[in-house]
Amino acid sequence: KDLDSFITGLPKAELHLHIEGSLEPELMFALARRNKVDIPFASVEDVRAAYQFSNLQDFLDIYYAGAQVLREAEDFRDLASAYFARAAADNVRHAEIFFDPQTHTDRGIPFDVVMEGLLSGMAEAEQAGVTSKLILCFLRHLDEEAALATFKQAEKWLDRIAGVGLDSSEMGHPPAKFARVFAAAGEAGLKRVAHAGEEGPPAYVWEALDLLKVDRLDHGNRAMEDAALVQRLAEEQMTLTVCPLSNLKLCVVKDLAQHPIDAMLEAGLAATINSDDPAYFGGYVAENYRAVAKARGLSRGQIAQLARNSFTGSFLSEAEKAAHI
Ligand code: HPA
Ligand code: ZN
């Protein structure tokens, strides 16, 4: 079998996917029309041409602008349905998807509208054989009070939310800023994850572990700069949700040929491959596997290990994991 079909054929879990980042330009235009929302683009080609980023913030500015077209529950359902269709084509069997409620509630969209739409897309996907869980992300460029208020809004939905996460602008917004809301989420029995070490220093990864008590680490690239930290992550078998095409597009790596994915595996880290914001970064999960496998010359054994790690690192029960591996 050729490498492409080997990769597509592997059963996978996706553990780092921002649902708002799966908004393809075609759907953005359709929703802008349906909801009579103005967008600063003349055409789909115009949108794609704007997707050239020199850092995380560059991307976030355009990602938050795109999300403005999402207004009704059916918009969130259509967004989720479109993602699950792409994921199923890549043989994704389970997805743990991030959503950013503050991006929506701050422009007057009720929290419940977001939840109802996403849950409806997830229920439809489950019928088609793809299971999923939701992870509520707090926007770290906003203050902790705002995160606590969002967590309060989520209260009645906690049986439908698997965990909390932390995303948006990393530099200047260390995990320590969110220690209280993460403690509250832990008290409520939720899993905890956080983006750390994408642009931020190893110290932010230490904080995510020690202050936020994360169950999984999102990105974690810069942990590789700190040998003691690598040792800690390996000892704890902490899952890292690595996103190769995101790393390339946001200039976290200069070139995929310099991507640390195999160095992570060789250091004994529980790395996984994920798409982050596939509509913006040029590829869904299988394309992330393919691109980094070719650039780094990964063996089939390494590729299969990455796919296995995605189930091991998921928030499925041990019995559910065993059924996938
Ligand atoms: N990093 C931080 N925040 C994000 C990202 C990311 O890669 N994608 C969507 N929000
Ligand atoms: Zn992300």
Automatic annotation (TrEMBL):
Residues 11-325 form the Adenosine deaminase domain. It catalyses: adenine + H2O + H(+) = hypoxanthine + NH4(+). The keyword Ion transport does not apply. GO terms for cellular component: cytosol. One of its GO terms (molecular function) is adenine deaminase activity. Binds 1 zinc ion per subunit. The keyword Chaperone does not apply. Substrate binds at D277. Coiled coil: none annotated. One of its GO terms (biological process) is nucleotide metabolic process. It holds the Pfam family A_deaminase. The active site is at E198. CDD domains: ADA. Its cofactor is Zn(2+). Catalyzes the hydrolytic deamination of adenine to hypoxanthine. Plays an important role in the purine salvage pathway and in nitrogen catabolism. This is Adenine deaminase.
